[in-house]
Write a structure and sequence with these properties.
Number of helices: 8
Number of domains: 2
Structural class: alpha+beta
Mean pLDDT: 79
Radius of gyration: 35 Å
CATH superfamily of the largest domain: Glucose Permease (Domain IIA)
Order of helices and strands: HHHEHHEEHHEHEEEEEEEEEEEE
Distance between the termini: 108 Å
CATH class of the largest domain: Mainly Beta
Number of strands: 16
Largest sheet: 10 strands, antiparallel
CATH topology of the largest domain: Glucose Permease (Domain IIA)
Shape: elongated
């Protein structure tokens, strides 16, 4: 085949262009080893799946009202023979200290509140009356526990009395129904002379009911003694991996620990169901309800009127959840609320 000189010239020019083009290309090496790419892809896919599951989990949140929790189809009033006589020992009211000379006097320490602490929780923790905490810290209806707050903690139950004009040790002792010697010992007095404005500790004394009600207001108190765990809301069981929803707080103590009414109210229901065990529901003013679950014994009946501090039952381990404890929940208009937000 005969190729013209012009054709040869064009072919050479094209070859030159191709050679120059190839020489100008730069080969770049990947910064990620090729064998890691499948693993990275698998991690990304796993992350997407987890996010999808979380979305479904949140959407299926089991929010029930108090009537659904009580599970009407399982309700059964506790048989009368299993009830106990109603005890008279109220919670957060001072014990009888007659005969106790309080020889060392009252000692006061300071405590800095932590997140989740409440005044009634601290009273139970230090085994003193709530009246004592209120009086020692001049708490009023506007007082609210918050992290970092420092409060005074007397080492025994009682209240403080500010000496007024014409007060004497005898008149003060008579007013509170104690012996003068108890008053002297509690305050380490070496003389019967007292001055106006002086603060005296009255061992075993309680605040007037109207004062206590005015300070606490519409809030509730912790209904029993024990370690408080704020488990309100959704959580995954670390053992089973299953999802649960806690309608309140758990108070852990021994089976048989007394459980009291957290506020004045009427017993709305007493029941038993497989999950919550023995349950007491109290109805309060302001469309509020309290629920006491996992009880061992119930000693109140539906329709009965109770006051804050009245004994309603005993802590147990009934129901699905294992362990000796009380699950305490607060509802407003039959819908669950964050329990600690309503506790004094």
């Amino acid at each position: 085949m005969i190729v013209s000189a012009e054709s040869q010239k064009i072919h050479k020019n094209h070859s030159k262009v191709r050679i120059e083009t190839y020489s100008s290309m730069t080969v770049r090496k990947s910064s990620i080893p090729l064998f890691l790419i499948p693993y990275i892809g698998a991690l990304l896919l796993f992350s997407v799946i987890l996010n999808f599951i979380e979305v479904l989990w949140v959407k299926s949140e089991p929010y029930y009202n108090i009537e659904q929790i009580m599970l009407p189809d399982e309700q059964s009033v506790i048989p009368e023979e299993s009830r106990l006589l109603k005890a008279s020992a109220p919670v957060y009211k001072p014990a009888d200290v007659s005969g106790d000379r309080q020889a060392r006097g009252v000692r006061i320490s300071e405590y800095k509140l932590r997140e989740g602490d409440r005044f009634s929780i601290i009273a139970g923790k230090y085994n003193i009356s709530l009246d004592t905490i209120i009086s020692a810290n001049n708490l009023n209806g506007d007082s609210k526990a918050h992290a970092g707050m420092i409060i005074r903690i007397p080492d025994k139950s009682g209240i403080f009395h500010k000496v007024a004009k014409n007060d004497t040790l005898t008149s003060i002792a008579d007013r509170y129904g104690i012996e003068v010697t108890d008053l002297e010992d509690a305050n380490n007095l070496i003389s019967t002379v007292i001055r106006v404005g002086q603060s005296l500790f009255i061992p075993g004394a309680a605040l007037p009911a109207e004062t206590l009600n005015r300070v606490i207001g519409g809030r509730f108190v912790i209904p029993t003694e024990g370690t408080v765990k704020n488990n309100y809301g959704s959580y995954l069981d670390p053992v089973t991996g299953l999802k649960y929803y806690n309608y309140g707080i758990d108070i852990v103590n021994r089976k048989g620990t007394a459980v009291y009414a957290a506020g004045n109210g009427i017993v709305g229901n007493t029941s038993y169901n497989a999950y919550y065990g023995r349950v007491v529901q109290l109805n309060h003013s302001g469309s509020m309800q309290t629920l006491y679950s996992c009880l061992d014994r119930i000693i109140v009946q539906p329709g009965e009127t109770v006051e804050r501090g009245d004994l309603i039952g005993y802590m147990g381990d009934s129901g699905f959840r294992a362990g000796e404890h009380l699950q305490f929940s607060i509802f407003k208009n039959k819908e669950d609320v964050d329990t600690l937000e309503f506790i004094f």
